[in-house]
Write a structure and sequence with these properties.
The complex is a heterodimer of chains A (161) and B (429).
Chain A (H helix, E strand, L loop, with lengths): L1 H4 L4 H8 L12 E7 L4 E10 L2 E10 L2 H14 L4 H15 L24 H18 L4 E3 L15
Helix pairs in contact in A: 2-3, 3-5, 4-5
Chain B lengths: L2 H6 L4 H4 L11 H6 L7 E2 L2 E2 L1 E2 L10 H13 L10 H20 L8 E4 L2 H16 L5 E5 L8 H10 L2 E5 L9 H6 L5 E7 L11 H10 L4 E4 L11 H4 L3 E5 L10 E5 L1 H6 L10 E4 L4 E3 L13 H17 L1 H20 L4 E4 L8 E6 L4 H10 L2 E2 L1 E3 L4 H6 L5 E5 L6 H17 L2
Parallel strand pairs in B: 3-15, 5-6, 5-7, 7-8, 8-9
Antiparallel strand pairs in B: 1-2, 4-10, 9-10, 11-12, 13-14, 14-17, 16-17
Helix pairs in contact in B: 4-12, 5-12, 6-7, 13-16, 14-16
Classes of the chains: A alpha+beta (161), B alpha/beta (429).
Chain lengths: 161, 429
C-alpha cells in the first residue's frame, strides 16, 4: 500500500498541470484514438514517422491526472526514438503497470518509474496504460484502441491484485 | 441484546409480531456497533463508507442469520420430504412474506425472488414486453435511468421494432412532468422509471406518474433499487404495476432481489427462464407452468440470500424506515450545506426532493483522482458515470464523484468527506 501514497508525486502533478506535447498534429502519418469505457476517458495520439524515427508526436483528450501525465511523459519519452525502441518501451511500461517488471533488471523505464505504484491500484492501471495502448494502436494503424476490447492487439491482463 | 437482536432471537418471531417496537431514539452508536465492517481501518484511517448507493454493508444480525441457515437449515427447497428441505422451504417462504410486508404488497405470490434489480427488469422485459409490446409501440423512460432500465428496453425495441421515448429533466435533475405527460399517445405500452436516481438522488414523483399512466391504461415498472433502502415504500399506495429492487443495497446479501408485480399481470405474462420449479408438469409434448411466483423462479434460487434478505428487512423495520429517512436527510442537509460553500466544488443534482446522494465535481480534478485521493483518507466514494451515461451527457460531465449515505453514517463522517475534498484540492492546487 505504500506505493500508492507516492502515486500523486510532484512530477505526475506537474505533467497533469502542464502536459507536454498536448494538442493536435498537422500531417500526422499515424493516428489512433484510445478509449476507456469504464470511466469514459478518451485520448487521441498522433505522430509522424520520419523513416523509422518518431520526429513529431502529440496527444489530447479528456482524462484523469494519471492518464494525462502518463501520456505527457510517454510522448516526451518516445519523441526522437525509433518505432522499435518505442514498442520496447510500451511493453516495459505495460509490464510495470501490471506489476510484472523487475525494476532492478535492465530496462528503459527511467523517469517513468513514477508510475510503478499504480500496480497496487487495479482500477487505476487502465488510466496509466491507456496512452500506451493508443500509441501502439497508432503504430499499427488500428483506428481505435480500448482498454476493454477483446480484439485489442495490446490487450494486457490488468494486474494480479 | 439490543432491540434488533431481541426481535431476531427467534426466526419466526419477527414475522409473527404485527408491529415491532422502533428504537426509542435513533441511537447511531448502537446501530454502528451492529456493523462489524465499520470498524475497519484503511491505511490506518477509520473507514468512512460513503458508497452505499452501490452496495450497503451488512449488520451482524444478517450475517448471523446466514450462518445459522448454512449451519443448521440448508437443503434444497420445494423438493424432498425430509426435515431440512422442509425447514429451508419454510424459511424461504417466510422470507418472501417478510419482503411482502416490507413493501406492503397485497399478496405473497406477488413477490418474486430475483437475483437483483437488473434481473427483475429483465424479467418484465421478457415476460411482459416480449409478449405484449409490438412494432410501433412505445415505451417511456426518463433521462435519469440507470443502464439496467435502458438496455433491456433497447434490446426489446431492436427485436420488436418498438420505440423508446425519453422524458427529460431540468438542470436540478428533476423530471419535467409536463414533458413526461406529453409523451403519451395511443401507442404507449409501458413506463419504466426509477423511484430514486442512483446518480443524483432525485426522488421522482412516481405516484403522480403512475396515476397519469394508468389514466391512459399504461402499466408502470418502477426501479426501486435506490428507494427501498432509504424510505418507506408502499406498493399499494404507489399503485405501481411492477417494482424491482436489490438485496445488497438493503443490508442484505448480493445475488438476491425482489420483483413485485400485480398478480393479474404476472399471471398473463410468459415465463422468463425455463427449468425446474417453474413447471407443474412436463412431457416432451407439452409443459404446463407453475403458478406465480414459482413460474418466475426457475432452478434452485439463492435460498440463503433470500433468507438473509428477510433478516435484513426485519432489521430495518426494527429501526424504522421513517427514522432511517429522517437521519439520512440530516446527513444530506449537513453535507449539502458544507459542500455548497466550498469554492471549486459543484454539486450535480439539486432536486428539491432528494435522497441522501451527493454527486459532485471538483474543478480541475478528474473524479478518478478524487476517488483515489479520498481513499487515502479512508473515505470510500464512487467515481465514474454511475451506469447512467445518458444522464452524464445531459450534465455535460464525463463522470462525477458520488457520496451516498446510509443510516449508519454520521455527521463526523460528513466532516471527514469535507476534509478529504480539501486535501484533494490541496494536492491539485
Amino acid at each position: 500500500m505504500a506505493n500508492h501514497k507516492a502515486l500523486y508525486q510532484e512530477v505526475i502533478l506537474d505533467h497533469n498541470k502542464k502536459p507536454r506535447n498536448y494538442g493536435t498534429l498537422e500531417h500526422a502519418s499515424h493516428h489512433a484514438v484510445g478509449h476507456n469505457p469504464l470511466c469514459g476517458d478518451h485520448l487521441s495520439v498522433a505522430l509522424n514517422l520520419d523513416g523509422e524515427c518518431i520526429d513529431r508526436i502529440a496527444f489530447e483528450g479528456e482524462s484523469c491526472a494519471i492518464c494525462k501525465a502518463s501520456a505527457s511523459m510517454m510522448t516526451s519519452a518516445v519523441k526522437g526514438k525509433t518505432r522499435a525502441d518505442a514498442e520496447i518501451l510500451i511493453q516495459e511500461f505495460l509490464a510495470m503497470a501490471t506489476g510484472q517488471l523487475d525494476l532492478d533488471s535492465p530496462n528503459h523505464i527511467g523517469r517513468l518509474a513514477v508510475f510503478a505504484g499504480v500496480c497496487d491500484l487495479p482500477t487505476r492501471v487502465k488510466c496509466a496504460i491507456l496512452p500506451w495502448h493508443t500509441l501502439h494502436a497508432a503504430f499499427n494503424s488500428v483506428a481505435s484502441a480500448s482498454t476493454e476490447a477483446e480484439a485489442d492487439p495490446m490487450h494486457a491482463p490488468i494486474g494480479n491484485a | 441484546m439490543n432491540a434488533v437482536q431481541t426481535a431476531l432471537a427467534s426466526p419466526s418471531a419477527p414475522f409473527l409480531m404485527p408491529a415491532m417496537k422502533p428504537f426509542a431514539a435513533f441511537d447511531i452508536e448502537r446501530i454502528r456497533a451492529d456493523f462489524p465492517i465499520l470498524k475497519l481501518k484503511i491505511d490506518g484511517k477509520p473507514l468512512v463508507y460513503l458508497d452505499n448507493a452501490a452496495s450497503s454493508q451488512m449488520p451482524q444480525q444478517v450475517i448471523d442469520r446466514l450462518v445459522r441457515y448454512q449451519t443448521s437449515e440448508h437443503a434444497n427447497i420445494n423438493r424432498a420430504v425430509h426435515y431440512l428441505s422442509e425447514t429451508a422451504t419454510a424459511e424461504y417462504e417466510a422470507a418472501r412474506r417478510k419482503l411482502q410486508r416490507f413493501i406492503n404488497a397485497p399478496e405473497e405470490r406477488e413477490v418474486i425472488f430475483t437475483s437483483g434489480t437488473t434481473d427483475g427488469i429483465n424479467l418484465v422485459m421478457h415476460g411482459y414486453g416480449r409478449k405484449f409490446i409490438k412494432a410501433g409501440d412505445e415505451i417511456i423512460l426518463t433521462t435519469l435511468e440507470h443502464h439496467s432500465n435502458i438496455v433491456p428496453w433497447q434490446m426489446l425495441a431492436e427485436e420488436t421494432g418498438a420505440k423508446i421515448r425519453v422524458a427529460p429533466i431540468n438542470d436540478a435533475g428533476e423530471l419535467l412532468i409536463d414533458d413526461y405527460e406529453n409523451l403519451f399517445n395511443e401507442r404507449t405500452r409501458l413506463v419504466g422509471v426509477m423511484h430514486v436516481s442512483n446518480a443524483l438522488g432525485s426522488i421522482n414523483p412516481v405516484k403522480q406518474m403512475i396515476a397519469f399512466a394508468h389514466a391512459h391504461g399504461v402499466p408502470v415498472l418502477v426501479d426501486g433499487a435506490q428507494a427501498v433502502p432509504h424510505m418507506q415504500v408502499d406498493v399499494q399506495d404507489l399503485d405501481c404495476d411492477f417494482y424491482a429492487f436489490s438485496g445488497h443495497k438493503l443490508c442484505g446479501p448480493t445475488g438476491i432481489g425482489v420483483l413485485y408485480g400485480k398478480a393479474a399481470l404476472l399471471e398473463k405474462m410468459q415465463p422468463f427462464k425455463g427449468g425446474g420449479d417453474m413447471i407443474s408438469s412436463v412431457t416432451f409434448e407439452k409443459t404446463t407452468y407453475n403458478a406465480i411466483p414459482h413460474k418466475f423462479e426457475a432452478g434452485t434460487p439463492p435460498i440463503a440470500a433470500a433468507i438473509g434478505l428477510g433478516a435484513a428487512a426485519d432489521y430495518l423495520s426494527a429501526i424504522g424506515m421513517d427514522a432511517i429517512a429522517a437521519h439520512e436527510l440530516d446527513l444530506l442537509d449537513y453535507a449539502t450545506e458544507q459542500m455548497t460553500r466550498m469554492p471549486g466544488v459543484r454539486i450535480i443534482g439539486t432536486a428539491e426532493n432528494k435522497a441522501a446522494v451527493i454527486s459532485f465535481t471538483i474543478d480541475g480534478v478528474h473524479p478518478h483522482d478524487v476517488g483515489t485521493l479520498l481513499n487515502q483518507e479512508g473515505v470510500a466514494v464512487r467515481t465514474g458515470h454511475h451506469c447512467a451515461q445518458p444522464l452524464m451527457q445531459r450534465f455535460e460531465v464525463p463522470a462525477t464523484s458520488r457520496a451516498s449515505f446510509a443510516f449508519y453514517n454520521t455527521l463526523a463522517e460528513v466532516d471527514a468527506l469535507i476534509a478529504g475534498i480539501r486535501s484533494v484540492q490541496k494536492v491539485f492546487a
